[in-house]
Automatic annotation (TrEMBL):
One of its GO terms (molecular function) is lactose binding. This is MFS transporter, OHS family, lactose permease. Its main location: membrane. Keywords: Cell inner membrane, Cell membrane, Membrane, Transmembrane, Transmembrane helix, Transport. The chain crosses the membrane at residues 12-34, 46-63, 75-98, 104-129, 141-163, 169-187, 224-241, 261-281, 293-312, 318-339, 351-375, 381-402. It is found in: Cell inner membrane. GO terms for cellular component: plasma membrane. It comes from the Bacteria. InterPro entries: LacY/RafB_perm_fam, MFS_trans_sf.
Length: 418
């Protein structure tokens, strides 16, 4: 790897690192903040996450089409970074006053704003960096591991920060956004040298504009709908389960602050293990296939959720939490490989944002509220039993509808380009 290419690799990695530092800080500690600082019950907390999901539903189709038309241009990514810059001031000076005026109104506004940066914005970040790394012949999973490293760092330092000052989490997000903005501004994406066939294929792809017909034909591909169902079963339920699991875990401690700190340590170990699996995931998924990788991720999630319902010793819950270190790399790498092998790569951002993020947010907007009420009604343990079987149903149905990429002919693969 020459010096220029090596520098670019670290630039991509740095962008992943600081974006997912923000992501991990908020999603790991927002449940604690909503419960302890904002003093919201689980149903209103669920409304915050639902508002984030519903806002993303509006944003994702727009973001996807815009990013596919922009290609390697950075304008939309820059807008997401601009929103990230104001997380600290928003939470410190606006969120609590809005909740005090009206809890439901405040939850909706707060969730909608955070979605600009996270639930909606993550699709822009992932799609842009995946396209850029593919253009420069990097393995997506190897660059994406920086996001896992960020998650480990955030979990380790976040627990200390949150106990000392709950608002410091969000100001750390603002500082990370400043660094992310600098990395994005300095990034120069250049096409690497390719073989004659690769260069010809790339030129043809770039010179063929994305049309409305291309986008409409995505919806005619049965694999797209199977993929959406699979994403609800895996990605949606992953987030729904994790939204309030920190509060469930902390409830086993006499001192909730102690529980929060221990959870942050466990989460830190989990995401560092995740980074290690991320290195191996591309090789493993290439061996078993992207569709099988998604099915396996769904099985691991099912085991993790149902195990958390029955294994209620602290050390057992901690061990079960670490299964996420296997699940996340399987899911993330399989998603990107499935999209680029089954669908027209010109539409990778659209398929990613609609098939992954849009479907995921539909699920979150529904199941965050449903599970929030269910936790109140029957408790976490019974709620987790129900959730585990919902996961299993979605994974089975999605797998039955999706085509395996190895059985996808060139004509099927390019249905979206018809």
């Amino acid at each position: 790897m020459n010096n220029v290419k090596q520098l670019k690799f670290w630039n991509f990695g740095g962008m992943y690192y600081f974006y997912f530092m923000i992501w991990a800080l908020i999603f790991a500690f927002l449940p604690f903040w909503l419960n302890k600082t904002a003093q919201l019950d689980t149903s209103v907390s669920g409304l915050v996450f639902s508002a984030m999901a519903i806002t993303a539903l509006v944003l994702e189709p727009i973001y996807g089409v815009i990013q596919d038309k922009l290609g390697l241009k950075k304008y939309l990514f820059g807008f997401v970074v601009l929103c990230l810059l104001f997380i600290g001031p928003f939470v410190q000076f606006a969120f609590i006053p809005l909740l005090q005026i009206n809890a439901i109104f405040g939850a909706i506004v707060g969730g909608a704003y955070l979605s600009l940066c996270l639930n909606g914005g993550v699709g822009v970040v992932e799609a842009y960096i995946e396209r850029s790394t593919r253009e420069n012949n990097y393995e997506y999973g190897h660059v994406r591991l920086f996001g896992s490293l960020a998650g480990g760092t955030a979990a380790f330092i976040g627990g200390i920060m949150f106990v000392k000052n709950p608002y410091s989490i969000f100001w750390a997000c603002t500082i990370s956004a400043i660094i992310l903005g600098v990395l994005l501004w300095t990034l120069r994406v250049k096409k690497e040298d390719k073989t004659t066939d690769q260069a010809s294929e790339t030129t043809e792809e770039e010179e063929t504009p994305v049309t409305k017909e291309n986008i409409i034909n995505v919806f005619k591909n049965r694999s797209f709908w199977g993929f959406c169902i699979m994403m609800i079963g895996i990605a949606t339920m992953f987030d729904v389960f994790d939204q309030q699991f920190p509060n469930y875990f902390a409830s086993f401690f006499n001192d909730s602050s102690r529980g929060e700190l221990v959870f942050s340590r466990i989460a830190s170990v989990q995401v560092f293990l995740e980074a290690g699996f991320m290195i191996l995931a591309p090789w493993f998924i290439n061996k078993i296939g992207a569709k099988n990788g998604l099915i396996l991720a769904g099985i691991v999630l099912f085991i993790r959720v149902i195990g958390s319902a029955f294994f209620t010793e602290i050390w057992m819950l901690a061990t079960w939490r670490l299964l996420a270190a296997i699940e996340m790399p399987l899911m993330l790498v399989s998603i990107m490989k499935y999209i680029t092998s089954v669908f027209d790569v010109r539409l990778s951002a659209t398929v990613y944002m609609l098939g992954f993020n849009f479907a995921k947010q539909i699920g979150i907007s529904i199941f965050s509220v449903v599970m929030g009420y269910l936790y109140n009604l029957v408790g976490f343990q019974q709620g987790y039993v129900v959730l585990s079987f919902i996961i299993l149903a979605f994974v089975i149905i999605g797998a039955m509808i999706m085509r395996s990429e190895k059985h996808t002919t060139d004509n099927t693969k390019n249905l979206t380009a018809a």
